[in-house]
Design a protein that fits this description.
The structure holds two protein chains of two kinds. By secondary structure, chain A is mainly beta. Chain A has no helices and eleven strands. In chain A, 0% of the residues lie in helices and 62% in strands. In chain A, a hairpin with a 2-residue loop joins β6 and β7. The relative contact order of chain A is 0.34. Chain B is mainly β. In chain B, a hairpin with a 5-residue loop joins β4 and β5. The N and C termini of chain B lie far apart (37 Å). The mean pLDDT of chain B is 90. Classes of the chains: A mainly beta, B mainly beta. The interface between A and B is medium-sized, with 23 and 26 residues.
Amino acid sequence: GQNIDQPTEMTATEGAIVQINCTYQTSGFNGLFWYQQHAGEAPTFLSYNVLDGLEEKGRFSSFLSRSKGYSYLLLKELQMKDSASYLCAVRVDTGGGNKLTFGTGTQLKVEL
Amino acid sequence: GAVVSQHPSRVICKSGTSVKIECRSLDFQATTMFWYRQFPKQSLMLMATSNEGSKATYEQGVEKDKFLINHASLTLSTLTVTSAHPEDSSFYICSAREDAGGQGYQPQHFGDGTRLSIL
């Protein structure tokens, strides 16, 4: 089976930097995604990693270490609108296609 | 960017009613669509993978006769919750995977979700 762990909640200050960690244990690993989800809304795609290393996209960066089963999402210059749930999702190759397994999400609260 | 439309956004109905939810990819083709269920403050749980022109693949524990999935075209999948009961109340979200993502990783794009409340 798949096991994905993220912290349940985090709090950070506007303008600061926050790192959200994700660890996973899975077979058939075929990439890791980060999504942002505001309450009552659908998730929106933030980033994708399939090889080790850092992917940067504006204020958001994501890192992957496949040997350690570890990823993090880095948010810089935090804004109030960044308050949301951040979902780590691992894509696995089931042999019959790819599917995503989601972590429980990290609820980030940005304060003044 | 890729847009997925999900309709209706909210349904409130009596126990025993069947409810149909539509998921459309508006500007791309999607051979594969996914249906998720999400309870409050919990993550998305994959219910089934919908494949255009063939039967859906259901996850363990999901009743295929209860949750009927039809994927009749490359842009439309429907989920019908048959004879819904209060325990079926949840947030249902669909996603569509681009068949030919230029990025090479075929991202999934999500609909806005359907909040189903069964009285």
